[in-house]
Amino acid sequence: MFDKERLLKISQLDETKTRQLNESQMNAYSAVAGSMIDNFPVLADKAKTALETKDIEGLTKLLTQIGAILQQIHADELAAQCLNEVSTMSTAQYDDIQAFIVDFLKNVSALSIDLQMAKFEAPPPKPAAEVAKTEATNTILAVDDRYFFLTAIKNMLQGTGYKATCVNSGEAALKYLETHRPALFLLDIEMPFMDGYELARRIRKSGQTAPIVFLTGNADKNSVVLALQAGAADFIVKPITKEQLLERIGRYIEPEMIDD
């Protein structure tokens, strides 16, 4: 069963329709959403294959199927985008179709992760004493082995009221945590020597309790389970825009006010 309060926080779902679900409807909704989580990776792979082989007819059928599922779980805006693309597929340029599919699958992948997270209880809020132990309530530690991605994160957060420290390995992160207590962690999953799951476990073992948000290009069910077991609060699917990054971080910590 999905947690209704967590569903209401998923921006891609129609809040009014979700809020109106009674217990019986929630059971039916959970079945459809659970099926979507299980089947989307297969549908996405088929869509990518159809796109690569320029099988427009096959791609049209797959998008129609995905659009119908999105309608059932009240992801109305995504469903409308999908079905509108279906209606113009036969006359659209291949490059335009390709651009849409890449962006669309990324957005549905992010929704799939949000739905998976909504099947689990939200982590309890930190006690006031724990918040006070952080050097500031807007500090973020970002860990990724790719320099260009850390630079992108830092640029996105510049001037937003968040303070970001970026390191390129789990070892460097643990060294930093010997003397610092950030308010939130952004962790890449696939890193050499120490992956994000192991780093998250060691962060928790060290006594740090700030929310851990994983950065990943992988939205499969097993990744979510492993992340939750390691202590994750949430996911961000790469690539990500500044608006998406700020929205996800804003679920857990507030930016510091900036004087004009």
Structure description:
The protein is of the alpha/beta class and 260 residues long. It has 2 domains: 4-117; 128-249, Response regulator (Rossmann fold). The chain contains 12 helices and 5 strands. α10 links the parallel β3 and β4 (212-216). The longest helix is centred in the N-terminal third of the chain and has 30 residues, at 23-52. It starts with a helix and ends in an 11-residue tail after the last helix. 32% of the residues are buried.
Topology, please?
Layout: H1 4-7, H2 15-19, H3 23-52, H4 56-72, H5 76-88, H6 94-117, H7 128-133, E1 139-143, H8 147-157, E2 163-167, H9 170-177, E3 184-188, H10 196-205, E4 212-216, H11 221-230, E5 234-237, H12 242-249
Parallel strand pairs: 1-2, 1-3, 3-4, 4-5
Helix pairs in contact: 3-4, 3-6, 4-5, 5-6, 9-10
Element-by-element helix/strand order: HHHHHHHEHEHEHEHEH
- Strands in their spatial order, largest beta sheet: 2-1-3-4-5
CATH superfamily of the largest domain: Response regulator
Structurally, how many domains make up the residues?
Answer: 2
CATH class of the largest domain: Alpha Beta
Structural class comes to alpha/beta
Instruction: Give the termini separation.
Output: 46 Å
What do we call the CATH topology of the largest domain? Rossmann fold
Helix content: 55-70%
Radius of gyration computed on alpha carbons: 20 Å
In the CATH hierarchy, the architecture of the largest domain is 3-Layer(aba) Sandwich
Number of strands: 5
Structural shape: globular
Please report which band the strand proportion falls in: under 5%, 5-15%, 15-25%, 25-35%, 35-45% or over 45%: 5-15%
Number of helices: 12
Mean pLDDT: 87
Sheet of most strands: 5 strands, parallel
